[in-house]
Amino acid sequence: AGFSFWGLFAGVLFGCIGFAAFIYGKKNQEFKPMIIGFLLMGYPYFVRDTIALYLVGVVLMVALFVWRE
Predict the structure, then answer these.
(1) 7-20: per-residue pLDDT in tens?
(2) Torsion sign, CA atoms 60, 65, 67, 69
(3) What contacts 24+ positions apart, CB below 8 Å, involve 55-59?
(4) 3-state secondary structure (DSSP) of residue 44
(5) Could you tell me which residues come within 8 angstroms of residue 12 by beta carbon, excluding any fewer than 6 positions away?
(6) Cα gap 30→55, rounded to integer Å
(7) Which of 1, 10, 26, 28 has a CA between 20 and 30 Å from the CA of residue 19?
(8) What is the chain's alpha carbon radius of gyration, rounded to the nearest angstrom?
(9) In sequence order, what are the residues at sequence separation of 6 or more whose Cβ sits closer than 8 angstroms to the Cβ of residue 38?
(10) From CA 23, how far away is CA 46, in angstroms rounded?
């Protein structure tokens, strides 16, 4: 229940971006991309609202590129 095409699309999109960020962080020994990548891969399992999926995904992606160590 609660599945829609756009919700599934958001989960796959942000999951793929999260996977790439996780692998990048692991390869370069950087903690921040690994954590944010893990969060991008995992949060779609817990958020069912389509708008919330996109909002959380965009916030995490912005954090990936803006947050400095």
Answers:
(1) 999 999 999 999 99
(2) positive
(3) 57/10, 57/13, 57/14, 57/17
(4) helix
(5) none
(6) 25
(7) 1
(8) 12
(9) 18, 22
(10) 22
Residue count (the chain): 69
Enter the tokens of residue 22: 């996780």
Q: Which two tokens stand for residue 20?
A: 């790439």
- C-alpha distances out from residue 17 to 1, 2, 13, 14, Å: 25, 23, 6, 5
DSSP code of residue 67: -
| Alpha helical stretches, state H, the chain | 5-27, 31-42, 50-66
Structure tokens at 61: 């992606």
